[in-house]
Amino acid sequence: MPLPPADLSPVSDAVTHGIRVEVMARHAPENSRPRDGEWVFQYTVRITNMGGDTVQLLSRHWIITDATGQVEEVRGPGVVGEQPVLAKGESFKYSSWCPLRTPTGMMYGTYRMSREDGEQFDIDIAPFGLRAKYTVQ
Is residue 2 part of a domain? Predict the structure, then answer.
């Protein structure tokens, strides 16, 4: 498995099928336990419908890679217990977290969306870096 790039930004932005996904991540030292090999990262996502059709977020698929190249995939319905419906111009914002066994890593993935007519499609979550402060690579 390739290792995450050391200079990957903690911010990402992608537009797929008229849906914009913006992410900002930060290290959460207050929830981390480096002596126990656990670094926790908080990330905030804003999903904006820039297209013409009303859409619903059905599920998520995250790919999380730590500094050793260890990959974990997370799949599930919705986000933070919700499956938001977004009309044209509407946004949905949420925050979540991710534990890592190393002080650096990266995340990316997709959201499964549905249009009102039942057509389903995936939208991209562009890669973003996870980096604890004062980490030397």
Answer: no
Kindly provide the residue ranges of all beta strands, DSSP E only, lying in 1-137, ordered along the sequence: 11-16, 19-27, 39-49, 55-66, 71-77, 85-86, 91-100, 104-115, 120-131
**Domain extent for 121:** 11-125
In eight-state DSSP terms, residue 30 is: G
Would you give the DSSP letter of residue 85? Answer: E
Tens digits of per-residue pLDDT, 69-109? 999 999 999 999 999 999 999 999 999 999 999 999 999 99
Strands 85-86 and 91-100, how do they pair? Answer: unpaired
CA angle 27, 30, 32 (to 5 degrees): 65
The CA distance from 73 to 35, in Å, is 25
pTM attached to this predicted model: 0.92
Give domain status of residue 133, yes or no: no
Q: What is the CATH number of the domain that holds 25?
A: 2.60.40.1470
C-alpha angle 49/89/64, rounded to 5°? 30
User: How many Å apart are CA 21 and CA 71, to the nearest integer?
Assistant: 22
